[in-house]
């Protein structure tokens, strides 16, 4: 029997690899670097776990989140694979135990937060495991965190390249569920991957039903209805800790047992919430989006966002936590045009609060980037294209319409908005640099129309440009001036 399949069967009980896994495992075993972009639920972690088992050595895994590490360690131990993580939250006894197993060469997988790599003890560990020829590979999980273009930038990831000098020749694998082409380029460059295998699998999922709706003033009914309709587990995402607590209480009061989860809870409660989510029959968890990375529950029937997600990449990943068992699952976004505005103000405020002249330029460009990504996500939510197609396009993948989402299943009535667009552009011409709100107010006095919405459409149509600093100041583009001279039809479904 094929030795790789044999050890897959021995350790995991599976008879075959999922698409994309095998080439990555073979690359690592032959000492070659790799970049693996495999969709959520595509079995990314197996790509670096199996080489450790086949070689009876150690694989170091850099991972951004404690919850993610602990979950992986728990799953590995349930398969009798010796694994551990090192992070600041461990008790001294547990920490000692980890170092003891490392010294005895017993561990196969060690998970670390990126900032741990600064510690001299960890550096010495890498160097000594390398000298003893027991270091099989370095794995960088959620590798998109290294890129400022990614949806979850972590400055600590920028220092990962340095680790390689401690163990020359040991292959490194970078993994991510979604990474747009420019993020992939950043990963290759910043981790200095050498002649890597680049394995990219499609993020297309044929069992997810996407829907995006305007959020009414009180969306309780929609949320309850979605939960009742769903099968298995439900994940409800809210933006802030406060809103997580608020919604967990509200759902409870309405007959749905709901558990809150966010980084501000104490570790015991967090652990309980995680166990509940993994073990209860039909759990409902209200969480911030960090929850769910790497959490392995196949029958999530609903992923519901209570606000506009912050980027298409992030949303693909978050919604991808639904239906990993291949059965149909719902992904619902409730958004409001105000979401982007309020986030814009929050970003500006934090920019002012953390005023640090040295970092100012970098911070400012991050805020601008975040604004652009929000706008891309808003364009998917308000746009007329198939949801999945639009999301995949945003990460650089071309796919046909899915035939299942709310856009594919509805017949949109399109009207010509060119007259209203002329009115809007003329008004803007006389008020250059005004913000979207004031422009809508001015226009509403002339005629009651959905001016805010039309403004966003015209930004997407590239007739207007919008500032990226969060204040949403508007400017007429040259193309807008051309349109005013000689308008052409603009068909939108309102
Ligand atoms: Zn569709």
- CATH-wise, what's the superfamily of the largest domain? P-loop containing nucleotide triphosphate hydrolases
CATH domain class name of the largest domain: Alpha Beta
CATH architecture of the largest domain: 3-Layer(aba) Sandwich
Determine the N-to-C terminus distance.
60 Å
Which segments are poorly predicted (pLDDT under 50) over 5 or more consecutive residues? Answer: none
Kindly name the structural category.
alpha/beta
List the main descriptive attributes of the protein structure presented here.
15% strand, binds zinc ion, 17 strands, alpha/beta, Rossmann fold, Arc Repressor Mutant, subunit A, 7-stranded parallel beta sheet, 494 residues, 6-stranded parallel beta sheet, single chain
Describe this structure in words.
This protein is of the alpha/beta class and 494 residues long. The chain has three domains: 3-200, Rossmann fold (3-Layer(aba) Sandwich), CATH 3.40.50.300; 208-394, P-loop containing nucleotide triphosphate hydrolases (Rossmann fold), CATH 3.40.50.300; 415-492, Winged helix-like DNA-binding domain superfamily/Winged helix DNA-binding domain (Arc Repressor Mutant, subunit A), CATH 1.10.10. It is built from 20 helices and 17 strands. It has a seven-stranded parallel β-sheet with strand order 3-4-2-5-6-1-7, with helices on both faces. The protein has a six-stranded parallel β-sheet with strand order 8-13-12-9-11-10, sandwiched between helices. Strand 3, helix 5 (92-103) and strand 4 form a beta-alpha-beta unit. It is globular, with a radius of gyration of 24 Å. 43% of the residues are buried. The mean pLDDT is 89. The site of zinc ion (ZN) has 10 residues, from helix 15 and helix 16. Zinc ion (ZN) binds next to helix 15 and helix 16.
